[in-house]
Structures are given as C-alpha cells and as structure tokens.
Amino acid sequence: MAFRPLSARAPAVLLRDAKPLKAIFGHAQRLGRLQRLLETQLQPAAREHCRVASWREGNLLLIVTDGHWATRLRYQQKRLQRQLMAFEEFAGLTRIQFKVQPPTTQPGVVEHIHDLSPNAAETIQATAEGISNPGLRAALERLAAHAKRKP
C-alpha cells in the first residue's frame, strides 16, 4: 500500500472551508482592526511599544515592550479609555490592563562581521609556524584561513 499525499488546496479555500482556520483568521483580522484604532489614539513614540493582546467582556489587554512604556501608558489610561470608547468596536470598554512582555527578537540587531586583512592573516600564519603546541597552531591556522576565503 503506497502513501498518497492529499492534494494541495489554495489558502483562500482553506480559510473559507476549514472552521478552525476561519475562526483564527477572523480573530486575527479583528485584533488587527483594534490595533489600528488603538494606534490612532497613542502618541507616535508609543505606537511601536504597544500591541492589542485581547479584547473580551469589556477588558482590553495591551502588551507593552517594557516597564517604562507601561508606566507612561498607565498615567494616560483614563484619557485613552475615554477616547477608545468613542469607537463602536470599544463601546463596552470598562478596563484597560497592561502587561509587560519584552520582544523576543531585537529589531535592528546586526551581527558584527570582522574582516581579517591579508596582512594580518600573513602575520597570524607566520606566528602559527613558530608554535610547537599543535592545538594552538591549528587554531591560528584556521584564523589565518578566514582572510583567504574572502574574494
């Protein structure tokens, strides 16, 4: 008996037919809409630090990147709540909660690549030739080889 894989279906068909996916997609769209409304009421500097996590039974949970922004937003909580209640989507808003959750990845962090000049590689290779310890000599030769790989 041979395994026959299921035929692939288009993403639009999956979202239309599969109820769990449809519910998840609908929830994601709703959160996106709430996020856009929230951003219209936040200061421009605070927008990148605050995300809508959930909205249910009049309780809005916001995820904030650090304690500094959470404190600043808590001071503005009453004003923010009044402004959000003006929108139909937030009509039943009774409470705003803030949860601090640092981002899992650092945006803009670039790996530092140190280039080794050919002159430095020659010096390291010459040093390696004068070393009697085989482990240290191999390590220095590997280090010198980094410059040789570059075009």
From TrEMBL:
This is DUF721 domain-containing protein. InterPro entries: DciA-like.
